[in-house]
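Work Package 3 (structural annotation) set out to generate three-dimensional models for the target panel prioritized at the project kickoff. During this period the team completed the workflow that converts sequence records into discrete structure tokens, so that structures can be stored uniformly alongside our sequence database. As a representative example, we reproduce one entry of 82 residues exactly as it appears in the project archive.
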Amino acid sequence: MPVTVTAKRALRSSAKKAAVNTLIISKLEVAIRQAKKTGKAESVRLATSLADRAAKKKVIKKNKAARIKSRLSKLVKPASKK
């Protein structure tokens, strides 16, 4: 356990941040599973948006977000060319 006041404050802060990060990651994982299951453009768009937000908040690295987005974009069938 922390002894100093500053260490106690840091522990409280890191616990709050960990809770928020866990929530963000779990929402992202659910959205990815849903997008893979359905393959609909709307669910892929939502998962892509959540991946971008997680990377912006530095919960995941930006390259991981790029990989997620790339894999999800392959699921959506491209529109037919005229």
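The CA atoms of residues 2 and 8 lie 6 Å apart.
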